[in-house]
Amino acid sequence: MALGDHLYYYRAGGTYSHHGIDCGGGTVIHYETLLWMKLVGMVASAKPPRVTRSSMAEFSRGSEVLIRSYDDVSRVDDADTSIKRAESRIGEECYDVFGNNCEHFIVWCKTGVAESSQVNAHRRAADVVIKGVPVGAFLLTAARRGPDCYRRVVTLGAVAVAGAVYLSTYFHQRTKDKDAGLS
Q1: Count of domains in the chain?
Q2: Is 15 within a domain?
Q3: Looking at 113, 136, 162, which one is the last position of a domain?
Q4: What is the pLDDT of residue 127?
Q5: DSSP for 117-164?
Q6: Residue 86 in contact with residue 100, Cβ under 8 Å?
């Protein structure tokens, strides 16, 4: 690992990843990441996630740490710029799962543009499900003509199919992202 590297590791069986930036001396700047903190961070009385500098051991919590590669190196700023950006936000408590998560933060540190491959994978999956809404609406409309039990089965089936399509699309995209070294 080198100064300014975009570090990440997988959590929850690879369903998501956590990101930080190598600041040298065995330290990493990242959003505090305990899942429960993210969830309760939305509650006013709970301590919200914040950008912090941690030891590598605190950051990784025993997980294998990987280095994210960037296909377009012309987009990536030098290590000093990346680290200065990260340091400028230490103490920030503006975590947002979909708009300012740990990956958004570290990609911004490296490139000046906040992006998240994880959020993009969710958006792609939602787009696929939304494209199926007309078919689902047609089936639900047709089910109204049948008995109550038939309507319930069709409704539950439509929800189950939408969920399966969403998860399948999401995990397919995450696998592609992992293969491309995006996390």
Answers
A1: 2
A2: yes
A3: 113
A4: 86
A5: HHHHHHHHHHHHHHHTHHHHHHHHHHHTTS-HHHHHHHHHHHHHHHHH
A6: no
